[in-house]
Write a structure and sequence with these properties.
The structure is a single chain. The chain is an alpha/beta fold and about 375 residues long. It contains nine helices and 14 strands. It has a five-stranded parallel β-sheet, with helices on both faces. A five-stranded mixed β-sheet has the order 7-9-10-14-13. A two-stranded antiparallel sheet has the order 6-8. The chain is elongated. The chain starts with 11 loop residues before the first strand and ends with a strand. Mean pLDDT is about 85; it is low at about 335-340.
Amino acid sequence: MQPSPSPVTAPSILIVDDTPENLQLLNGMLKSRGYKARPVPSGEMALRAAKSDPPDLVLLDINMPEMNGYEVCRRLKADPQLASIPVIFISALNETMDKVKAFGLGGVDYVTKPFQFEEVHARVETHLKLRQLQKELERQNQQLKESYDRLRELETLRDNLVHLVVHDLRSPLAMMAGYVDLIKVKIAAKLNASEVGYIDVVGKHTAKLLDMVTTLLDVSRMEAGQMPLNRQACDLAGVAKEVVDSFSVLAGRRQLSIESLSGPLSIHADKDVLQRVIANLVGNAVKFTPDGGRISVTISRKDLMARVAVTDSGPGIPTEYHTKVFEKFGQVDKQARRHSTGLGLTFCKLAVHAHGGEIGVESEVGKGSTFWFALPLR
């Protein structure tokens, strides 16, 4: 004989049958096993009892006057507070269609009369355990949801704080950049080469900080859907060539080239944002390609999409980091080769998606990288 449930945690079982002998038999047997048995002789009484004190399981007869077991089960499953309670049918009906209907209405099991109590008890035990596991899973899911909601709340607070601080930084940084230029113009003639170099370094890093702040603000605005795009017709190949030409000096000893495989490609896009996307990709390629390396920008067309691919001969990126590089402040550090992405690639991803396009990277360690994006043709 299986051990009886603890009286403190005894599961509640609602027994529904219009035959007094069946009620008495099941009631006595279930109580002897330690369950809290609640016998009722009609479907109407069963529904009232279930609503006032939901049971852990229902044993339900089918052939009853006024309201049969099928209707009782249907009403139980229609009530959100009672729908998850397992229902085991116990009936003299043994046709296949009777069982199919019972399962179709939400029953979890079907026992044919006359029954052996050991069989009933085994099925009751099984479905009570399943019910307990379901409750535990629901509890854990609720805890996960609460934790997730709290995490989202904290992330929102953090992002708001960062946005506030960064927004306040932009004005003084812009002022610093302006004054550095002014100092260089006004007193450069009075300084030696080293001192002018110091001013250049300050100006360079101030401009870099200002660019980072601007990008972070733009990323926040894009994430919030608050950065409208000034779309206009533009030639993708022409825009890319302007960007590549602007990097001709910065490329140094690296070979920087551009090739259009499809001629002019007209797209409907925000030209300024598009230039920043291409500049980010080319700038990263220049940064991580050693002297003497190659960087190529290829413009092509595939079906109804215009594609820009920036290929370099740098150290490459491990496959497991191909998604991470587009995340905020994501970076790759592999065998002393460091690929810091900061916010540039995050901006690129959001900007391309805002245009209805796609972006990605193809790369292997030691074989360089190809960052690409594709936009719908006009």
